Amino acid sequence: NPRHVEEKRRIGKLAARFIQPGDTVFFDCGTTTPFVIDFIPDELEFTAVCNSLNVLLKLSQKPNCHIVICGGTFHRKNQVFENTSESGILDHVRLTWAFVSAAGVSQDFGVTCFNFNEVEVKQKVLRQAQQRLLLADHSKFDTVRTAHFAALEDFHYVVSDKKIPKAYRDAITASGAQLII
């Protein structure tokens, strides 16, 4: 998806700076996440957890990255694996960071995505992470999608671009999160 590539690249650069050696990081599905991985130094040793094919392929290019993939049923449309069994890797992993993407962020309706098959994983990683970071370019704000998975208050950081509406800059700050642009 070529939309907002420059914004996504900048978001990726800003978000990648948070990752420290030895961290365990969940990388969500989506078109912004691969840009985060682009900016992780090759020499950095870290563990990555992911559930999407495009993210897995990106992570495989990082020589010092230990990769954990959440397996299950593969959904071609959004390129994610969905675990349908009772227990999985995410029940036992503890994350330093959850880098979560959204298709919509609304003050009234919260943080949303297009697909219900992503909701459980997003909610689980938010519960298992010490630090929760939302990746969302300005086009996602004041937008509501089908599947709700979180509130703005659930995130410690929101990484976006300079075109984010002022009402949302204020809402993020009011929620206690730090806006990184």
Top keywords for this entry?
about 180 residues; alpha/beta; Rossmann fold; 7-stranded parallel sheet; 6 helices; about 30% helix; about 30% strand; NagB/RpiA_transferase-like
Describe this structure in words.
The protein is an alpha/beta fold and 181 residues long. It has a single domain, classed as Rossmann fold (3-Layer(aba) Sandwich). The chain has helices spanning 5-16, 33-38, 53-59, 89-92, 116-128, 166-174, and strands spanning 24-27, 46-50, 65-69, 73-75, 80-82, 95-101, 104-106, 110-113, 129-135, 147-150, 157-159, 178-180. The strands form three sheets. The chain has a seven-stranded parallel β-sheet with strand order 3-2-1-6-9-11-12. Strands 7-8-10 form a three-stranded antiparallel β-sheet. It has a two-stranded antiparallel ribbon with strand order 4-5.
> Rough shape?
globular
| Coarse structural class | alpha/beta
CATH class: Alpha Beta
Measured between the Cα atoms of the first and last residue, the distance is 22 Å
The description of the largest β-sheet is: 7 strands, parallel
Q: Helical element count?
A: 6
Number of strands: 12
Order of helices and strands: HEHEHEEEHEEEHEEEHE
Integer tally of domains = 1
Per the CATH scheme, the topology name is: Rossmann fold
Helix content: 25-40%
Q: Can you list the strand order of the major beta sheet? A: 3-2-1-6-9-11-12
Radius of gyration: 15 Å
Mean pLDDT: 95
* CATH architecture label: 3-Layer(aba) Sandwich
Care to give the gist of this entry?
This protein has 181 residues and is of the alpha/beta class. Helix content is 28%, strand content 28%.
